Structures are given as C-alpha cells and as structure tokens.
Amino acid sequence: MTTYLKEGEPYLKTSHCTLACYYDGTVHVVMYIAMAVRCLQNLDYRNLALYWSGSMTNIVLVFLIGNVIGKYSDDVKASYLLTIPYLLVPVVVGYVMMKRERKVKFDPKRIEAAHQQDILTRPIDVLLITFMIFAIFITTLRGLAALDCTWPAVQGYLARYEPYIGDPVAYPRVQMLIYLFYYVPYYAATICGLLFPGQRWMLDWSILHAGATSQAQVIHMCASFHKRTLSAFRPPMLGRRGFFFINMGLQTVPQILAWRCHSNPEFFQELPVDKEKKAK
After folding, report:
1. Would the pLDDT of 215 be above 90?
2. Which among 130, 123, 162 has a CA at the least distance from the CA of 145?
3. Which terminus has fewer CB within 10 Å in the chain: N or C?
4. Rounded distance, CA 29 to CA 52, Å?
5. What whole-number distance in Å separates Cα of residue 108 and Cα of residue 65?
6. What is the reported pTM?
7. What Å distances lie between residue 53 and 33, 165, 217, CA to CA?
C-alpha cells in the first residue's frame, strides 16, 4: 500500500482524498448493499440510485479535475485512468433512472388541489426559496474566491471563513467552481420550480442534488480541519461559527428540499389537461 501511494496515486494522501476514500468506503458501500437488497426483493430503488448517482458523480468529478490542475499534477500517471469508469457508471445509472417511469399513480383531484395552493400558504416553500437566494449569493462568493477574485468582500470571506478554498491541492477550488457553474443555475431553477407547479423534473433532480451536496459538504467541512491540511488553510477560530452555519446549511437544506418534493409530489405533477394538450 505504501508503494502504491508513493508510485501510483500520491494525491490520495491529501486530506480531501483521504476523506473521499472514507466516504466512499462507508456511505457508498451502505448504498450498494441497500440497492442490492431492494433489487433482490423486487422493491423500487430509483430514489436511492439517484442519490448515489449524484454523490458518486460529484466525488469523482472533483477528484479527476483536482488531480490534473493541483499540487500533484506532475504525479498523475496511468493509474489515473482507473478512476474514469467510476464517473461514467453513475452518470449512466442516473440517466437510466431518470428515463424510467415512476410506478406511483397520482389522483388528478389531488394534483388539482395542490396546484391551487398559493405560495403564501406554503411556509416551507417560502423558507426554501429564501435559502436558495442565500445559497446563490454565498455560492457565487465562494466561486469568485476560487477564481482568485481580488474584491475586498471576497478576500475578506476567504480569510475569515474558508481559507481552505485557496489550498494548492485544488480540490476545494474545483468543488467551489462546480457549485458556481452547476449548482447556482440549479438553485435558480429550483426557485421557479417551487413558485410554479407542474415541474416534474424537481422530483429527480432534488434527489440527485441532495446526494451530491451531502457528499461535497461532508468532505469539504472535514477536510478543512484535517491534520493533513496546513494550519494556514484551516478556518480561523473567530470565523468557525460562520463556517459551520454556512456549510451545514448548504448540506442540510438540499436534504429538506428532497423530502419536501417527495412528501407532496402532486404539486410537481402536470395537470391531466396539460398532458392531453402535449399528447395532441
């Protein structure tokens, strides 16, 4: 093992990769077992597969890009290619699951009643929309920090709350850019999905995003304090409350959003009349 870490993939010794391996060897293994059990029992495992797909896609994407642009870019060897199937498989699984029709049948009357609910009568949705606005702001700020923006507000955030973003290993930088270019548009689309009923895509994408953010935030938070992270890149004592408030919010609320979407899925179904118009 020591020889492989030295000659094969030395970047696995970084705090980010160490925690990614821990996450993959625990949380993902539990998901594999759960999916296998449900498959053997002829039970639906669609949501679990989508959650795993989002988690696995994010973890491998950050790993692949971070390896070639970060501190260990000169140490990338042929063994790097072994990771590529780990990106392709979850993408294919996610695509197949999203194409598969849901087995649940919805009552047209309940769909109609859900569509008639005003936003002010849905306090959870109001809170989720408020969070999405906050997430767009803070994610944009972190993305600009990853791009080495020199604005005082950006540099102040970086120094006070998340200096780990500037770590030369580049994994946190890549993660912040994924948030900026992929998650910010998703947050904006989610606001629309909560305001306007009939957005069926919300059911699947909320699960995918919950899986991706859960993995991303757990590794980001833990790696920020890991002993292999240089002390200069760990959150300073004065900013740790803010660090945990921001990152726990970005980790927890997507799970609540996924729960909300699946606790009242009728709101996200199309009205039968709309389906008939599309069919024609």
Report:
1. yes
2. 162
3. C
4. 10
5. 46
6. 0.92
7. 15, 25, 16
